[in-house]
Design a protein that fits this description.
The chain is mainly β. It has two helices and 37 strands. The protein folds into four domains: 146 residues, Immunoglobulins (Immunoglobulin-like, Sandwich); 84 residues, Immunoglobulins (Immunoglobulin-like), CATH 2.60.40.10; 84 residues, Immunoglobulins (Immunoglobulin-like, Sandwich); 172 residues, Immunoglobulins (Immunoglobulin-like). Keywords: Immunoglobulin domain, Repeat, Signal.
Length: 514
């Protein structure tokens, strides 16, 4: 009669050869004590395990008797009975508590447990693992092992900086692998995408008509929920000719002060920026100095003299072209700002007030006012730059009001210290119509000339009966474009002597230019 050890060796040989034991061999099987056929307690399952982890594939049977169990993967036998067949050191039978075996001399598996342990799993370990009972008609369960692999970006269309010309179409690609298949998303560092979105998904990102606002560091990120996302970066540089804008088109200053003229220049590659007065290029002298910080280029004029007033320009250039910005340096007053209420407390009188910033004492004001014209009387040629349309019932009334200047004994001019001087004036207009809307504008003059005409200001007189008057918006109704140069008087303009007015100067020492 065969010994148990001989039978074990023979069955192991047959498993390794891929041949099942025949009927005559199974006739030698020793059935369980109650004569029942063994069956599986654990069902086949699918395990999703991250790479690098350890997995235990369970296999428990009832009534194991003397039947031999084996683990197989495809045609390869991993274990047969207690014998490990595969040379892979990561594979082992899970140790069990000592138990009794129906086959004397063979280590037993407690409770019919025959679990397989696989350590440090790798992507190639994915597949089907079969636990088989060596009966006449072999019985088996199958576990499917799916290995979860963290995302990895294996292709990026551009590894270094990507330089494109302005207006070009840009396509950036990013491909990744992993299990499950990762999703690729695009973002831009410290900014939204050119489309305005914070993130878009897809293997590629396309930018149409690239401009300087499209430049930046783009990031593609691959994520599949396993481990940490993988990221790659592409730096996009858009090459373009300089684009120049001035911080202020007109800079007001005074004699002896310091003036700063500023141009904002965007360009790639970085531009060379030169400053000119009229057509003469300016260099660095004791009086002139230029410096830059980022895209901000500044010309500093120290100890301003009358000869410094005039037209300046900054010219930015690089290999893709050049551009110019223009700045006017002047000593004339700034635009007048009206600060009186838009609703008069009287039906035929209005107290109008305004202020101007000037580094020199204002010597004269010109106030223009008229009743607002109805739409069918409005002229399309009204106030085109330096002209006013006089005549009809909407003609302009003009008032010349002297400022402090050097003739006003109550004021000292110019101020004894550098600084912006806010100079205020008010004037009482009489003979107005009740419940009417009027328009007003004003100009100011100092020793350097007349400033630009102020925007139009609207005010309203009170009705005869206050309850019939609808109060307008609390916000001043001001509109109109600034005018250039002196305002010429028409022969039909009315020169009205001021009924009474007040002139006030407020010195602001902290500001040198405005």
């Amino acid at each position: 009669m065969w010994t148990i050890a001989m039978k074990e060796i023979l069955i192991l040989t047959l498993f390794i050869s891929g041949i099942r034991a025949d009927a005559s061999l199974n006739d030698l099987d020793m059935p369980s004590s109650n004569g029942r056929v063994p069956s599986f307690v654990t069902p086949g399952q699918t395990y999703r395990i991250a790479t690098g982890s350890t997995v235990v594939l369970p296999c428990r049977i009832t009534e194991p008797g003397s039947y031999v169990l084996a683990w197989k993967r495809g045609i390869a036998v991993l274990t047969a009975g207690p014998v490990k067949v595969t040379p892979d050191p990561r594979v082992s039978l899970l140790p069990a508590s000592p138990g009794t075996s129906s086959l004397p001399g063979i280590p037993g598996f407690a409770g019919g447990s025959y679990s397989l342990e696989l350590k440090n799993v790798r992507p190639h370990d994915a597949g089907d693992y079969v636990c088989q009972i060596g009966t006449l008609e072999p019985r088996e369960i199958t576990h499917t092992l799916e290995i979860l692999v963290p995302p990895r970006i294996h292709y990026v269309s551009h590894n270094g900086p990507l330089d494109v010309l302005q207006g070009a179409t840009v396509k950036m690609e990013c491909r990744a692998s992993g299990n499950p298949v990762p999703t690729v998303a695009w973002t831009r560092k410290n900014n939204v995408l050119p489309s305005g979105e914070r993130s878009v998904s897809g293997l590629s990102l396309v930018i149409q008509h690239a401009d300087r606002h499209s430049a930046g560091q783009y990031q593609c990120s691959a994520d599949n929920g396993v481990g940490q996302p993988d990221t790659k970066h592409i730096t996009l540089n858009v090459l373009y000719a300089p684009e120049v804008e001035t911080e202020r088109g007109t800079v007001h200053t005074g004699i002896g002060l310091e003036a700063q003229l500023v141009c904002i220049v965007h360009a790639e590659p970085a531009p060379q920026v030169l400053w000119f007065k009229d057509t003469a290029q300016l260099g660095t002298t004791e009086q002139h100095a230029s410096h830059s910080r980022g895209n901000r280029y500044t010309l500093v004029i120290r100890n301003v003299t009358a000869a410094d007033f005039g037209n300046y320009s900054c010219v930015g250039s690089n290999v893709h072209g050049k551009a110019r910005g223009h700045v006017v340096l002047t000593g004339v007053p700034g635009l007048a700002v009206f600060d009186s209420s838009t609703l008069s407390t009287e039906k035929d009188i209005y107290n109008i007030s305004w202020s101007v910033n000037s580094h020199a004492a204002v010597t004269e004001f010109r106030l223009f006012y008229r009743q607002q014209r109805t739409p069918h009387h409005r002229s399309h040629h009204f106030e085109s730059n330096n002209t006013m349309n006089m005549g009809h019932r909407s003609e302009w009334n003009s008032v010349v009001i002297p400022g402090s200047g050097v003739t006003n004994p109550s004021m000292q001019a110019p101020p004894p210290f550098p600084g912006v001087t806010k100079q205020k004036m008010w004037y009482v207009i009489k003979g107005l119509q009740a419940a009417s809307t009027y328009e007003a504008r004003v100009q100011a003059k100092n020793s350097h000339g007349w400033n630009k005409m102020s925007p139009i200001f609207h005010f309203n007189t009170r009705a005869n009966e206050m309850e019939n008057m609808v109060e307008p918006s609390a916000q001043p109704a001001v509109y109109g474009s600034s005018q250039t140069g002196l305002f010429p008087f028409s022969s039909s303009a009315n020169l009205i002597a001021p009924s009474y007015y007040t002139f006030t100067i407020i010195a602001i020492a902290a500001a040198a230019v405005y």
